[in-house]
Every structure is written in structure tokens, then in C-alpha cells.
Amino acid sequence: MSSRIFTLLLFSICSAFSSRVLVTFAHDFDSHINSIKPFFLKLVERGHNVTVLDTSSNPKPRYFGPDVHVLPIYLPPKGPKPAHDSFWIVDTASHHLPPLFAATDRVLGDIIEEHKEKLDTVLNTTWDLIIMDEVFGLHQNAISYKLKKEKNVPYIVFSTTITWMSNYINNAMGRFSSSRIGMFVPLPKDSNNFWNPSNFMHRISQFIADFREYFGICYMLSFNGDLDNLKRIASDDFTFSKFTKQSAFHLNEQIDRLPFAVPEAADFKSIGAHCRTPNALSRKYLNFMNDLSSKGTIYVGFGSTIDITFAPEFLWKAFEDTFRNLSDYRIIFAYGGERKMDVGKNVMITKWAPQLEILYHNATMLFISHAGLKRPAKTSRDRSVISIFQKYGTGRSSAHRPNDQTLLACSTV
């Protein structure tokens, strides 16, 4: 989605003068705010006053530049932190979503009890607009709903990857199980095992998964008292259906037409893709990638959420052996973990890499990543091939797309 179009939508809500904008995002999670960041930075550039509500278990607040105000709420984890290796070994399903929502309601309870002054500051400030992440933070729903109801503050719901199927169903948003791959399909057995909408068993299994998500989120959460803290701030009449219908816009950043056709709802419009022009690569990367003895470049990166340090030992060793065996290729590995990898001089390990610029370079032949829902979008824009290493969560959806339609090579862990 073009940031110019997004900003135009915001300006239709904000006043013609400098507006006060509140940005909220998933609790203790970097990936989604990094997707929203370009848009609120554009607002700052246009003279608007942006405040980011940062709820985190990290005592150090996030920094988005000198012109973005950050209101930090530090919430130390209670009990043992989830193991990092869970991203590599835990098999998720749609019925795991309601407990995640319930956990964020408990986080909201901690905010109410331990940071009431900061919460009151947010609720008593005069905002012109709220931009909120769709998932994993019921504090966002509570704040947006209350300010809309009491002060008529408009809010925009921003889905940074894919909207929950329960949201599509509950609000007649023009999507249904038989026309799309869900997030929790079974792991593919091989590269030919992709989701097929003409297969009845695929359709019925997807319907069952989507129904479990819908019933759990829209009914069981409230029945079990797992929305009690949300309703303390919002009101007892809160429902997810009403919340979505009251939003000024519901924006979604994903490639939903690849590879299957989808129906259109009257108020559900596709804006189209926006591919940013890459900057020039620094000499450090150019010298490495343009080596005349190299057959090409392989870029490896797992994003901001997945840490390969905690991958199963066999997978770590497989990467080491593969990198050593591919000595005729230059490999750039974006990795900031503490574990040292035993590889040759053909491998550049860097804490951060200019991903877009590397993928646009003519020498880049392969992109190896974790198959998160945002990865196929980035890869198709950047003209490279992606190899999927499967794990916890949403990546199985990407792994089930046909190779000839999405240029994805699948490898499951």
C-alpha cells in the first residue's frame, strides 16, 4: 500500500492543521510496529504530532526518532518468559488464539492496576485520531472503544499481515474459508503438498479451523470472563463486531489475491502494491556480492521475531554444513544472536542488513527465511526466490502456496 494513499486517508479524518495522533500496537512485539512505522513517520513529516504507546517487558523504551513521542509502560513478565525455542517446536492451531487474547486481557489488567496514571493520561488527552494494530493487545481495543464512545475520536484498525478469519466472518468482509488458505493448515509433507480449494477435504478442514477461531474469540472469551479487564475500560456492551463496524478504516497489508481469486465486498477495496525504490548499497556489501569468483549471493534473514540461536541443534548444524558446502556462493546472514557459527569466509554475518537493497541486486539468487505472512510479499516485490523453513505460527499458510504461482520452495522443520 502506498504511504501517499494511506496519508490521504488519514488527512480525510484529521484536521487541516497539526493533528494529535495516538499509535498503539501489539504488546511486547516488534514486528507489527515496524510495519506501521513508515506511515506514522510520514505523518510526523507532514507536521502532525504522533505519540506511540509502548507496552513492553523491556525496560528500555523503543525509539522512533526525535520527533516521535513515546509513552512507555514497562510490564515485567510474571512467571517464566516463554521459551525462545517455542517458535521452532510448538505446533499451533486456531483454538490457540483465544488464550492469546485472554493473556493480553491480563496484561490490560496489569496496566490498570500498576500504571493507572499513564492510562489516565492516554484517556484524558485530546486525540484527533488513533491508529491501532489489530492483534495481541486488548488494551488497544479498550482505549479506542472508550475514546470513540465518549469523545468521538476516530480510530483506524491496521492489520499488518492478515485479518483474523473471525473478523472477516463476524463483519461480512467478503472472505470465507473455501477461497483462502488459513493460518493453521497442517504442515506440508513435500513441495507438491499445497492447499487446493477444489479439494473438499481441504475446504472442510479449513472451515472447521475457522469456526473454532470464530466461536472461541466471539463467544468463549466473554463467557469465560477473559474480556473482563477490557470491559472495565470500554464498557459491558463491547463486542468485536461492534468495534470493527465503528472503525473509520480497517486497513490490511497483504497479498490476498496470490495465488487464488477472492470475492470483493462493497466496502472492501484493494488499493494495490507499493514497491519502494531501493537505495544504493554500501561498498561493504557491493565488494562482497560482486566478487568475481562467486556464482551468486544467498541472503538469509529471519526477521525481528525469530532467533535461530534457539533452533533445534540439527537445524543449526544443517545451516553450518550448508554454508560451508556452498563455498562458491556469497552468503549474507542477518543474525544478531550470541552463538558463534562455524562457517567459511564466503559467509558475512551481520546484525542488520539492507534487505531490500540486497534482494534487488542482480547477484542475489536465493532468500532463505522463516515464511512469516509478510515474507512472500517482500520477496515477490524484490524479485528473489524464497526458501521456507517452517515453524510455530502463521508461516504454514505461506508454505502451502503452489510453487509455480508464488515462487516459494518449501522445507519443513
Output the structural class: alpha/beta
Estimate nothing, just give the exact number of structural domains: 2
Biggest sheet descriptor: 6 strands, parallel
Question: How many DSSP E strands?
Answer: 12
Q: Calculate the mean pLDDT score and round it.
A: 80
Overall geometry comes to globular
Distance between the termini: 32 Å
CATH topology of the largest domain: Rossmann fold
The order of strands across the largest sheet is 3-2-1-4-5-6
Runs in which pLDDT lies below 50 for 5 or more consecutive residues are: 390-396, 402-413
Helix percent reads 25-40%
- By oligomeric state, this entry counts as single chain
Signal peptide: 1-18
Pfam families: UDPGT (PF00201)
Keywords: Glycosyltransferase, Signal, Transferase
GO molecular function: glucuronosyltransferase activity
Explain what this protein looks like in three dimensions.
The protein has 413 residues and is α/β, with parallel strands linked by helices. The protein has 2 domains: 20-270, Rossmann fold (3-Layer(aba) Sandwich); 283-387, Glycogen Phosphorylase B (Rossmann fold). Helices cover 38% and strands 15% of the residues. The protein has 16 helices and 12 strands. It has helices at 3-11, 31-45, 86-89, 97-114, 116-124, 138-151, 165-170, 200-223, 228-233, 240-246, 283-289, 313-325, 355-360, 375-382, 395-399, 403-406; strands spanning 20-24, 49-56, 69-74, 129-133, 155-159, 249-252, 297-301, 330-334, 347-350, 364-369, 386-389, 408-411. The strands form 2 sheets. A 6-stranded parallel β-sheet has the order 3-2-1-4-5-6, with helices on both faces. Strands 9-8-7-10-11-12 form a 6-stranded parallel β-sheet. α4 runs parallel beside α8. The protein is globular. It is an enzyme of class 2 (transferase). Keywords: Glycosyltransferase, Signal, Transferase. Residues 1-18 form the signal peptide. It catalyses: glucuronate acceptor + UDP-alpha-D-glucuronate = acceptor beta-D-glucuronoside + UDP + H(+). Its EC number is 2.4.1.17.
